[in-house]
Design goal:
2,3-Dihydroxybiphenyl 1,2-Dioxygenase, domain 1, eight-stranded mixed beta sheet, binds carboxymethyldethia coenzyme *A
């Protein structure tokens, strides 16, 4: 597996409508896309910071992963996503090394990327995503 960079940092927020003005007005970043990912029960907003994106996540369902996270822990950093050259191959390699996978096979995430999540119980408490175009 080859990690090239941090693709994005996922941040759970109560409301994109409240959060976007903070990132734009206070930090001077520009929201370049808002996208709903029905499968994940979230609405996302993206900001570019160098090679890395900030992905704000608003839950669209209290029973979804971000809804449950906010209920338990409140707003804050939700996951870290690494860019890899081949998601399917990387997931297989990680599983062979003993990492517990949430996604055994890649699925489609925001911006049409292939994504796969690793379980926080086997990644020292950090929900980890790997993603890439392949
Ligand atoms: N970071 C670290 N730990 C987390 C976590 C997170 N984001 N979310 C949950 N956990 C921990 C919980 O604290 C809990 O730990 P304890 O047992 O010690 O209390 C444990 O994981 C189980 O949590 P839970 O609330 O019972 O929730 P579930 O087991 O139902 O789900 C998880 C947890 C990680 C498997 C689920 O959130 C998941 O499948 N996530 C991957 C998909 C996702 O997050 N999608 C949203 C983003 C989409 C995108 O970016 O495209």
């Amino acid at each position: 597996m080859n990690i090239s960079h941090i693709e994005h940092i996922g941040i759970a927020v109560n409301s994109l409508e409240e959060a976007i003005p903070y990132y734009e007005g206070m930090l001077g970043l520009k929201c370049y896309a808002v996208e709903e990912i029905a499968d994940q029960k979230v609405k996302t907003a993206f900001f570019m910071v160098g090679q890395t994106k900030i992905e704000l996540l608003e839950s669209t369902d209290p029973e979804g992963p971000v809804g449950k996270f906010i209920e338990k822990k409140g707003q804050g950093i939700h996951h870290l996503a690494f860019a890899v050259d081949n998601v399917d191959k990387s997931l297989n390699e990680l599983e062979e090394k003993g990492v517990r996978l949430i996604d055994k096979n890649p699925r489609k995430g925001a911006e049409g990327l292939n994504i796969g999540f690793l379980h926080p119980k086997s990644t020292l408490g950090v929900l980890t995503e790997i993603c890439g175009e392949e």
